[in-house]
Amino acid sequence: MTDQLQRFLFEDTPVRGEFVRLAATWQAVLEHHHYPPPLRTLLGELMAAGALLAATLKFDGLLSLQLQGNGPVKLIVVECTREHTMRATAKWQGGIADGGLRDLLGEGRFVVNLMPGSGQPGYQGVVGLEGDTVAAALEHYMATSEQIPTRLWLASDEQHAAGLLLQKLPEQAGRDGDAWPRAGHLAATVTAQELLQLDARRLLHRLFHEEDLRVFDAKPVSFRCSCTRERVIDMLRMLGRDEVRAVIAERGEVEVHCEFCNRRYAFDAVDSGQIFTSFGVGTTRGTRH
Ligand SMILES: [Zn+2]
Fold first, then answer.
1. Which of 10, 21, 84, 93 has the smallest CB count inside 10 Å?
2. Alpha carbon of 185 to ligand 1 centroid (Å)
């Protein structure tokens, strides 16, 4: 079975890890947009990274990872919930030539948002883009913002997005001091092909068979878009009755398109009447005049 997050740790050491390989989740993202191949590679790597980070950070609601740039690619965004449902999309302009992270995004920043589900204030971490790979940008973020030594190996192709993460927890007395560099050396022998083709059991055996590894139950990961008609209605209410009516007068309807799942939400004059009447806007405006 694919699309699983596999947590593991090196017994009696401060080193823990996660492995993820996405197939159906990744295919669901690709189904909704046709991404130029170099961008698709970065998007897949950021998907794998999102699943790995969501498994290691403490948060209740939503983790959002954004690569923002001023190059031909403007934005790559991946969202992951506590329940390991994911969605992702990207914005770009014109043709995308082959290249690394910096060729595609130019100057930019890496933004991490942790949003609690219950309307409490969230947390945002922002760092400049460093390195020429998604893994390097994330390692830089984890070192600067989270101060947790973290190493990542990421890969994606048309079929799979996969990644391996190692993290060093705070040292405890009597623990194996060589474990962190040793685990890193072993993990660094992994190839993109292995990340993309092997399941967790075979990959962990291939890399760490001489280590005392504790492997936890795998957790399923899946695609889910959180857009709903109700959320779109909330957005239209914020836009305001006059704005919405003006668009309907011109085009016959307001159409809102979800960038993540391509779902289309349309509202005509009758819908608009219901949206704003039920909100009590008509009454409020009436008393003002
Ligand atoms: Zn959607």
1. 93
2. 41
